[in-house]
Write a structure and sequence with these properties.
With about 170 residues, this protein is mostly helical. The protein has a domain of about 110 residues: Lysozyme, CATH 1.10.530. It contains 8 helices and 4 strands. A hairpin with a 5-residue loop joins strand 1 and strand 2. Helix 2 packs parallel to helix 4, helix 3 crosses helix 4 and helix 4 packs antiparallel against helix 8. A two-stranded antiparallel ribbon has the order 1-2. A two-stranded antiparallel sheet has the order 3-4. The N and C termini lie far apart (about 55 Å).
């Protein structure tokens, strides 16, 4: 009779552990605000610092030089894309994350792309459980077109502080 209770308890503990690992799969309002603040909204297509055609809150897919969107369309594009970037972080990161860490990583990945996350030292040290090294790894990614940009330096600092749980 003790055997089934023990097995049931193991399954409950396993379910709780899995729940903890996948609990942070949606960016919070704080994370969305960070992205919106740094991306800013642009209704007309423009070329970003790296020369990529961009619109809305940093949307780049399929953007053409004369594109124009409304604020509502920009919010919808961001919402749709965030699901994609949440999935990148959830899939590539194999260690548990607090909400603030997840938010910082989604913001970072939204700005830099999933390939940079996948191939980064940041992901390597994070997946080894070296949470303490992640903020400095985030800060390293402050260049566009080979040049350090003040805006990217500010953004990386905000993401690093958010990841470390020291955001204001």
């Amino acid at each position: 009779m003790e055997q089934p209770i023990s097995i049931r308890l193991k399954w409950i503990l396993l379910a709780l552990l899995v729940g903890l690992l996948v609990a942070n799969t949606i960016i919070s309002n704080k994370g969305i605000s960070l992205i919106k603040d740094f991306e800013g909204f642009r209704s007309h297509a423009y070329q970003d610092a790296a020369g990529v055609w961009t619109i809305g809150y940093g949307h780049t897919k399929g953007v053409q030089p004369n594109d124009i969107i409304s604020a509502a369309q920009g919010d919808k594009m961001l919402s749709d894309e965030l699901t994609e970037y949440e999935n990148y972080v959830s899939t590539l990161v194999i260690v548990p994350l607090h909400q603030h860490q997840f938010d910082a990583l989604v913001s970072w990945t939204y700005n830099l792309g999933p390939t940079n996350l996948k191939n980064s030292t940041l992901l390597e040290v994070l997946n080894k459980g070296r949470y303490d090294l992640v903020p400095d790894e985030m800060r390293r990614w402050n260049k566009a077109g080979g040049k350090e940009l003040e805006g990217l330096t500010r953004r990386r600092e905000a993401e690093a502080l958010l990841f470390a749980g020291r955001q204001t």
